[in-house]
Amino acid sequence: MSRLISASGAGASGAVVSTPRDLGAFIRGNLGGRLFPRRLRRNQLRFVPGGSSDPRGPGSNSAGLAIFSYRTKCGTMYGHTGSFPGYAQFAAASRHGTRSVTSSMNIAGSPLRSELLAKLRAMQRTLVCEALRD
């Protein structure tokens, strides 16, 4: 816990602190249709090519309504990334929320260094492929 920097300063954080387990439960519930009405979920999953989360997620990114599509060679997952000084998060799930992946990584430096982000995206691609494996 830091007294120097508060999570409440991050855009939409609402001062919420989540574990990877919390993020996984949320993203599975969201994609699984258990959190929001069907109409909202349909609107949420209309994607605009080229939009990307920050930091950029694995594969080809497209922006939806508060969710991103990450199309990789192994398949597509849906979720969001996030960063805060010293941290980078990723949470994604399969189309119906049956499989998910989350990561939370401590990365020194702000803004996040590009060589570390490249390694992070490679790790995320590997995680997506493992999550989508039959």
Structure description:
The structure is a single chain. The radius of gyration is 15 Å and the shape is globular. It has helices at 20-31, 38-44, 114-132; strands at 48-49, 60-63, 68-72, 75-84, 87-93, 100-106. Helix content is 28%, strand content 26%. A six-stranded antiparallel beta sheet has the order 1-2-3-4-5-6. It has a single domain, classed as DD-peptidase/beta-lactamase superfamily (Beta-lactamase, 3-Layer(aba) Sandwich). With 134 residues, the chain is of the alpha+beta class. The protein contains three helices and six strands, in the order ααββββββα.
Keywords:
alpha+beta, Beta-lactamase, 6-stranded antiparallel β-sheet, 134 residues, globular, single chain, 26% strand, 6 strands
According to CATH, the homologous superfamily is DD-peptidase/beta-lactamase superfamily
Give the strand tally: 6
Order of helices and strands: HHEEEEEEH
Total count of helical runs of at least 4 residues: 3
Helix content: 25-40%
Q: Within the largest sheet, what's the order of strands?
A: 1-2-3-4-5-6
The secondary structure category is alpha+beta
- Give the integer mean of the pLDDT values: 84
Count of folded domains: 1
CATH structural fold name: Beta-lactamase
Shape, per Cα inertia axes = globular
Span between N and C termini? 39 Å
Rg over CA atoms, rounded to whole Å, is 15 Å
CATH class: Alpha Beta
Strand content: 25-35%
The quaternary state of the protein chains shown equals: single chain
Major beta sheet summary:
6 strands, antiparallel
Second-tier CATH architecture: 3-Layer(aba) Sandwich
